[in-house]
Fold each of these.
Amino acid sequence: MRRAANLFDQIADRDNLRIAFHKAARGRRGQAMVRQFAASLDRHIAAMSEAIRGGTFQVGRFQQFLIRDPKERVITAPCFDERVLHHAIMNVCEPVMDRWLIDDTFACRTGKGREAAIERAQHFTRNATWFLKLDVRKYFDSVPHAKLMDFLERRFKDRRLLELLNRIIAAYRGEPGIGLPIGSLTSQHFANFYLGWLDRFVKESLRVRGYVRYMDDMLLWHESREALIEIHGRCQKFAATQLALDFKLGEVQRTGAGVPFLGCRIWPTHVELNRRSKRRWRNRVRVLERAERLGLSSELELQTRLTALTAFAKGAGVKSWRFRQSVLKQVAVDDP
């Protein structure tokens, strides 16, 4: 695949920045920074375009906060105009990165996503006896900047674009030379792109037919337990030597016991939410119902959020109707 060239000017183009603004503002129109940007949109877009072309656009202005959902993570959210820049970059660069990825990786891709990943995983679960689950230890915190830039240089030829990407990657204040901030659009795409090399090793060198990846959650299927054990060792070696990454402890198991993936347990015949997802769903519904009852949110906001929660709980054919009904009935009893 030839390297993409002459993309930098497309990113700095005012029409592209205007599209990026509307994407970045989605769901945030009430925020003060967004309202201020929108009030003088043409002026801000012109200033951004000039700063990007001149190499003076400031990057690395973040706000950080801690979440526990369920594990503790630090979210690093860029300021609004840098969020616009990230969208402007991905408007142009995402198609190039996407074309290089294999079909069976599903995160951060139009027409893919969690539901498609679960459906593909169930397909392989129906046709194999054994599976191996892999995920990377502290993945976002472990991505080496130099290696990531080397991979980006294999796909992009435009030197000004590469310099801009390097500034964005280096701006994260984690360990020197390592890590991507969770909460940034570019980080999601860079992280997904980085593991594309592992995808190709699995599919092209190891010739594994049953393989699905969603960000750093990976599943591999095979009819032979011994073959999967060997594949596990070779994947670990590749990740360590070629990507400077470390896998968590993986284990080969039978598909008949259910395959854990993306908050679900997958069987050949059906898919269910796992225990952790059920607990989180129950707790979120209780919080939403109580907020509406106390007047902290409107009935419309409650319905909108419940709709999103329900979409998560029943997507990809997940069997959850009885569970959801039991939760809603119990909430009605507890919070009359």
Amino acid sequence: MNVQEISSNPVKNILRFSVPSIIAMVLTSVITVTDGFFIGNYISADGLAAVNLGLPIVYLFLAAGLMVSVGGSALAGIAMGSGDAKRGCNVFNQTMLVTVVASVLVGAVSFVFFEPMLRFLRAEGNVFVFARDYFFIMLFEYPVMILNTSFGMFIRSDGRPDSYMKINILNVALNILLDYVFVRLGLGIRGIAFASLLSAVVAFVLNLLYFVRFSSMYKFGKFTLIMEDLRNMLLNGSSEFIGEMSGCISMFCFNFVIMKYFGVDGVTAFTVVGYTVYVFSMIAIGFGQGICPLVSFVFGSGERALAVKIRKITNVLLFGTGFVFALVLFLGAGGYASIFVREQNVRDMISFGIRLFCGTFLIGGYNVIGSMYFTSCGKAFPSALISSLRGLVLLLAATFTFPVWWGLTGLWLISPVVEALSACVTLYFCLGERRTVRG
């Protein structure tokens, strides 16, 4: 990468880095949606509810792993942009070690308190059995998933987003194939989990091979544990930690409220509607992860105006994507619902919910890009504030009030309203950044 090349054609470079990242992230979401398809059609709606009730466990792993890997990749990118390749490589090795330690520790704690954790998440009866069978296996998959995500951030920073995309394509194809094979063999929800674990291990081996043989910027080797870099890594990645922990808390509260007012059918409907938001979030994160190395590099080179320009162009591209996404889902809500469930009452809940959720696709991407932009610039406070508002403070306030005030309609309005309010805060910080650049 060089600043002149990025400046001469920013759209081309944004797409060059973002499209492979988007494809990789969407393929990751395809795994989740495909799992939901097989669980909903070949196992039961209770299986879908079980997977959703256990999602806070996923967020625990993501909180620890992404705090380290996102913060570390941003620091490494800034170092490379300033011409300090030795420090950038040192940060890479330090980041990967700390990511391994964090993932293993969270996995060990989750393993020890596994069944009490499921009880706390309100998994009961048949739903508990499904959750236990699924997540016991996934406890081994999640650390591998975090390491793969961390590898992917550095592969993109290395200027080879296409390589990570190809690895993800293989991962998804293998996962879908194994889902089908294991379900047909009668392994049930355990087979779905085994498919995820085996495909993640294959992807891990390929990611590892990339850094052993092909990486031009980042190499495994001896490194110095620099406490200042560790502190900055954790501080800079704090917004991701807050965001994921907020997701953990919010998902628990969401499930608590839905179970209280709408029962297992409500959780199932929310799970299926959530797939649409999840896929769009992966597109937004793909754009964000795509521009992160660009922003870090040009920011480290002192080209702050170019960093702002990259953010603005990305917002325009993502808004257009969100508009198309919202239009297609609004018109095809009924058909979408029929893919996952057979019960008509649940289908009706899903169709109704999707149409109210559509506002999320127009606004949510702006907040994602804003938060990741500030992380890429090493500015932890605005990034953390945006993440905590949209993922915890405003979300919890809406979760415990909207369903009480407006019933099922209130449930589906939570996300678009929270994103709209959070966007006001994101806009405030972005305007402040623009004034600083001009000054």
Amino acid sequence: MSASAETAILKTSHLLGIEGLSIEEIVGLLDLADTYVALNRAAEKKSALLKGRTLINLFFEASTRTQSSFELAGKRLGADVLNMSVRTSSVTKGETLLDTAATLNAMRPDILVVRHYDSGAAELLARKLDCSVVNAGDGSHEHPTQALLDALTIRRRRGSFEGLIVAICGDVLHSRVARSNIHLLAKLGARVRLIAPKTLLPSDAERFGVEIFTDMRKGLAGVDIVMMLRLQLERMTGAFVPSTREYFRFYGLDREKLALAKPGALVMHPGPMNRGVEIDSTVADDIEVSLIQEQVEMGVAMRMAVLDALARGLARGGRNT
């Protein structure tokens, strides 16, 4: 597999969100990721596609799955990978994001993967840096690679999105995963439902063109995919839910509530899971219905596909477009 202009997938040199991607770009990434699933399951997992390229992971928020899968993806493609620790960097001493951008630019990386607590931070860096930028989550705005890996997981199990009903359940208000998945699933032809208490729904949720339910039992009726979201207590100031125990009673996914979905319905969760808060362990650990571990595997393949697609852009000299 080689990077070339003829096989370009992305129209720009960055991946900042799902909202700006075309159906063709999304399908191209899904198809490419499928090839990397096969590579990752082979005895020899290495490629030299990014040999000589430098990938920097810059995470201002804690991450296990996303950062480690980007690191693994970069290394399997042959890149030199640097994980920058924000906790020990100049950021903790008052350095601004623009100062950080200037410092990074001087290091001449090829690809920067960034997670930041402010919405729009990735886009700002993309405007200031001479390298490709991947948004690994910005505030409550978007998390494009999570939505792409979720789509890859669903497509490999169900084949098509047409006619699928996907319920996104839980803390929609604070979830960048939910926003990216809403954009992506709608583009691919799935019907999307949001299920959450009123306090955890965006005030303008209707504008997304989704069905909205505040009663989980009603919302799960006839659903093909149940996508649970983490209750993001760290982003909450004030009482959004009475208690985690009460939240689980009404909005936590257990066997009883899952039985209301379509027979054969599958369960997803972006992680990390709060067991006994948004999902019961008997559901999360049931390999017959849970796709959670499969999502982790697909995460590496999808991030390899994203890095591959960006490398094609670097090969044709397309930056900051």
Amino acid sequence: MQEMVSLDGLTKRFGPLVAVDRVSFTVGRGEVVGFLGPNGAGKTTTMRMLTGFVAPSAGSAKILGHDVVTRPVAAKRHLGYLPEGAPLYGDMAVRSFLNFIADMRGLAGDEKRRRIGEAVARTGLEQVLHQPIETLSKGYRRRVGLAQAILHDPPVLILDEPTDGLDPNQKFEVRKLIAEMAPDKAIIVSTHILEEVDAVCTRAIIIARGRVIADETPEALRRRSPWHNALRLSVDREGADGFEQLVAGLNRVREVRRTGEVDGVVEFLVAPANGTDIAPEVLALARERGLTIHGASIERGRLEEVFRQLTTVS
């Protein structure tokens, strides 16, 4: 896998405050990396250093081998950046703004027209091309910001909260676009929305207090959840109490939680002691007790619980 982005010991200090502390990772072609962390963790500062908008106090960041500090023009030529808040020229019409961006990127003639047309189509801006940006909704402004980021078809994309302000349909379209672009690019999505990780990311990096505390696939992170491989089971109310006690006494069961009751059907959530598959054993016990099983499913694990667990450790 070709290495497209490289951070090595990247650090940023603001006086006595260490906002980013020796962050190191690489991103290869075809990867979509979710860069996660609570507010104040250092996500945006890291993105600003990576894109050359803030100088690091120590360490380095490279785009396709070009250092963003010592070779900023070469690095940014290969980079598309959607910053937090997507600052735009509000008094410009959308088409004028995209023409301006194309000029700044050195595009001209047929290539310029083609690239603008593709960016407009991909971000759904056809109906607002002649409107001043300041008159657009937050969602449309976000889409204009995304259009300028992909306009020159860069091999590296840095997207800071790309679906912020979008409605569910617009979020779906943006995530679909990211997935379509992913095979030929290295994409970093800085976000606090965990569903974004499930939707588009092949890998997740979690940062807290300025440091990387996890760098794994979403599935590997889910396996850290206390509810990974938990069994969600619905049975008849009659006999449920005795069944609950028996299940709680099984060696491989950590916890049994009664999560609801509707029309005489009780739902349990049964958590395994070490993430093992306990479903066959629990279901066999239910059948032995003569209980009618109305539903059974396996929990994959909950990213929000893992995120909370990792980022709130003192």
